[in-house]
Amino acid sequence: MNPDFRDLLSAFNAQGVEYLVVGAYALAAHGRVRATGDLDIRIRAAPDNAGRVMKALRAFGAPLQDLTLDDLSQPGIVFQIGIAPLRINILTSIDGITFDEAWPARVLTTVFAQPVAVLSVEHLSAATSR
C-alpha cells in the first residue's frame, strides 16, 4: 500500500472517522486481487463525521480550499486527492448500499499495524451489481 494511503487511513483512525475502504483495495482484502492505483474510501455522510474527516484531511495535508463540511455531509460527492494512478477518492455514497447498511457488516483488517475498516464481500457485490 502506498505510504500516502497508509497515512490518510492513520489520520482517519486518529480522528475516529467512520469510513469503509471500498473498490479494488477492499476486493484485495477479501483475497480477490485486482490491479489498481487508487484508493476508494466511503465515508459516513453526516455532519459529525464530516467534522472528523476535515480534521483528518487537514492533519494529512490535503488541499481543502474547495471542500466544505456540507460537501462531506451530502450524498453524491467525490473528493479527490492526488493524481492518477495514485489518487485517493473520498466518496460520500456508493451505488447499491447505504453506509448504515454496510457499517455493521464491515470487516476489520490490519494494514501497516493499524486497523482498517473494509466493505464486506457481500456489500461489495451489491455495490458493483449495477
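[next item in queue]
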Amino acid sequence: MQDYTSKRKQIMKQILLVLALVALLGPAAPRADGAGIAAVAVGRPIPTFTYRLLGGARLDTARLRGHRYMLWVMATWCPSCVTGAHVLARHNAQLRRSGFRIVQLEAAGDLGYPGPSLASIRSGVGLSSTAPNWYWGILTEAQSLALDPASAPDVFYLVDRHGRVRAQSSAPAAHWAQISAFAAGH
C-alpha cells in the first residue's frame, strides 16, 4: 500500500509540473513548416502523412479515416508522457471497444535530449500497448515541425472520423476525461 501511495504522489507531482509548464509557456500559434505543410489547428484537417512505426511498418493517415483517434507527439524523456501512456494502457480495452485509435509518435530526435527508447516505453506499459488500435512510431523532422512547431514534449490532438482536429491538449493523464468522452463520441 505504501508503494502505491508513494508512486501516486510521484505521478501527481509530475502531472502538476507539466501543467505548470504548459500554463507558463502557453499554446503555440499555428504556422506552416518549411515544406509548406500547414500546422495543426483545431477545426482543420490533420496533415496527411505516412508515419514510420516501430518494427518497420508504415501508417498512412488515410487508413485512420472512419475512426476517431488521438495523435500524440511525445518525448521519451518526458515524465507526463510516460504517465500518460500508463493511463491510456489502463483504459485501452474501453478505447478499443469504441473503435478509438491511439497514434503515439516520438518527436524527431527526441527533441534533442537523451531518453529511453520508444520501444522500452512501449514494453514498460504492458500488453495493452500491443493492441491493434495502438500505433507506436517515430516522426521525421518535417512531421515533427508540422505537428509540434513549438517542440513541446507532450502534445496531443483528438481527430474525428473525417480527419479533422477537434481538440488539442497535453498530458493525457491529466485530460483522461476529455479523451474518454471524445472516444465515446461525445
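[queue empty]
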